[in-house]
Amino acid sequence: MSDELRQSLPRSRALFVAVGCLAGGFLLAPLLVIVPIAFSGSAYLTFPPETWSTRWFTDVFNDPAWQDSFTLSLRVAAVATLLASVAGTAAAFALRRMTRGRRLLRTALIAPMVVPQLVLALGLYLAVEDLGGQAGIRTLMLGQAALATPMVYLTVTAGLAGVDPALSRAAFSLGHRWPSVLLRVELPLVARSVIGSAILAFGLCFDESVLSYYLSPPGQETLPTHIWLAAGQSASPDIAAVSTLIMGLALALLGGALAVGAAGTRKSAPSRKAASHQKAASHQKKGKTS
Predict the structure, then answer these.
(1) Dihedral of alpha carbons 103, 108, 109, 111, sign
(2) Model's pTM, two decimal places?
(3) Is the preceding peptide bond at 48 cis, omega within 30 degrees of 0?
């Protein structure tokens, strides 16, 4: 960073804060409209509501169609999260040990993040048809797992970056083979990264709508697909109620991921402090020797 840029940042801090507040307000504005409408007593989407009621939440909880779509979304997201967690974690450990072709494989792993979801859905549908099968819920699970795998891979790779390779070498020198080193040394050190990425992957899969819309068989809509279809038929506040519940679930998942990360930071802080003291003592010893 140049000296001119470093000196200009304090003077521009107010501008950055203002731009950040405007961007945050722009992103949160739709949410601030949806939540009050969910508690409206009117049968139409009106803002601000003239009367207040929780009847739309009661209708959603008692409607079998909403219940079935919610249950299906939970099932699909759980299986996709499990597949993505295993694939992303295994890829992170494997690519850490590779010396050739790492960049090519890493690009291939991250590709689903930049490929349009409509293209991915069409590709999955045609691939399953060419193999003699029929696209359905299992295809949807695989598609959502492909979307979530890059997130798990990047998160676990970031966690592995903080693991000292000397620990693995020390375990090998003590006679452990690679499965034992992986399961007893490396995996426990990045367990919080794996859990945090799994929570975020579940939120991504649960709220995914494009693959769900094109790959779900008729009569088996996930919750985002059901919202999409219901919004096309009628503009009822029950859609706002379901959206509010999904936002609450997303916030809960985000809070869980942050709590897992904060717990890992607090636990690793004493070890980093001890390592720092040990390193400083080593430098002092070398200085006295010289």
Answers:
(1) positive
(2) 0.77
(3) yes
